[in-house]
Amino acid sequence: MQTRRGRFAPSPTGPLHPGSLLAALGSWLFAHRGGGEWWLRIEDVDRIREVPGAAGEQLATLTAFGFVHDGPVARQSDRDALYAEALDCLLAAGHAFECHCSRSAVEAQGGIHRACIPGLRRSDPSIRLRVPDGCLVEFDDLVHGRCSQRVDLDVGDFVLRRADGCWAYQLAVVVDDGAQSMTDVVRGADLLDSTPRQVLLQRLLDLPTPDYAHLPLLVDAHGHKLSKSTSAHPVDRGDPLPALHAAWLQLGQEKFAASPQATSQEWLHDAVARFDPARIPRVPHMELS
Q1: What is the DSSP letter of 227?
Q2: Check: CATH 3.40.50.620 for 5-77+182-189+212-286?
Q3: Mean pLDDT for each 10-residue chunk of the chain (289 residues)?
Q4: Which of 46, 45, 127, 123 is nearest to 87 (CA)?
Q5: CB of 72 within 8 A of CB of 41?
Q6: pLDDT of residue 221
Q7: pLDDT value of position 122
Q8: Catalytic one among 17, 128, 228, 285?
Q9: How far apart are CA 69 and CA 6, in angstroms?
Q10: What is the DSSP letter of 275?
Q11: Going by C-beta distance under 8 Å and a sequence separation of 6 or more, which residues neighbour residue 187?
Q12: Measuring CA to CA, which residue among 43, 28, 33 is closest to residue 76?
């Protein structure tokens, strides 16, 4: 029987904030509720946005919060050869193509790429997936239930390698999850819309589709997702239990009284035994002040 395996995959664009912690805790609980493994991956595929030193700070914060990972910490910046191999397979099978359309040209056509604009040539073309007409992708999410998307109409031919040479997230995450034998992908609901694209790529690359669970987002008073780009304050790694407890409640779980002397690892152990995925809400939560 295959070992259940989940992962937490932060982008190194700043310190971990309460929204990041919510995703880390949710992925930890899903992975460990059945005795599975929990891995870490640094998603630094977008090297332009990377903040020097952020990955090390994130790992130190996770350690302070008691999150002990299995397996080596993977970094997307070390995995170019894997992404190139997958892209070559898609190109050879006719599933991907070179695109000379600029972003502004695609936006002028409605923002959804279905055919290249004749006559455009550029020295740095992107590579897109050729999404077939009528492409309906359906999957079951452990929080949101049955989900479906017409990828051709709602997304169009999406980018696999950008014009600046960076790998697109959609390709990188699919290759990583396949290479690391991930069975559970637990992350924020802002990525729910990306999942059909990833399921489509998994099918074309003959990779298994993991179980998905998209957690409620943590939002500010204006309903905007908390993120490093909106200056969300970092979690305090010197006092982890209050933040862990807040994230637990944001996952819809019942309160429980931890020992005042409990370490963060002991708290996490108790939380796994009490975790009920059916209680996770679908709606966003406002950050607790």
Answers
A1: -
A2: yes
A3: 91 93 97 95 90 95 96 95 98 97 88 90 93 98 97 98 95 98 97 98 98 91 57 85 94 87 92 96 67
A4: 127
A5: no
A6: 60
A7: 86
A8: 228
A9: 10
A10: -
A11: 9, 23, 27, 213, 214, 215
A12: 43
Let me know if 225 is a catalytic residue: no
Q: Is 194 left (phi over 0), alpha (psi -120 to 50) or beta?
A: alpha
User: Hey, which bits of 199-259 come out as E strands?
Assistant: 211-215, 218-219
Alpha-carbon distance of 201 to 124, in angstroms, equals 23
192 token code pair: 């729910």
Q: What is the pLDDT of residue 109?
A: 84
Q: Is 130 helix (H, G, I), strand (E, B) or coil?
A: coil
Pairing of strands 285-286, 96-99: unpaired
Domain limits, the chain: 5-77+182-189+212-286
- Quote the tokens at residue 92: 């050879």
Classify residue 71 by burial, with Cβ atoms within 10 Å: 0-12, 13-18, 19+: middle
Question: Which stretches within 93-161 are classed as H helix?
Answer: 103-108, 151-154
Contact 24, 8 (CB under 8 A): yes
pLDDT at position 284, please?
76
Determine the pLDDT at residue 288.
Answer: 47
Confirm if 28 and 67 have CB atoms less than 8 A apart: yes
Specify the residue for token string 């990779």. Answer: 207
3-class DSSP assignment, residue 42? strand
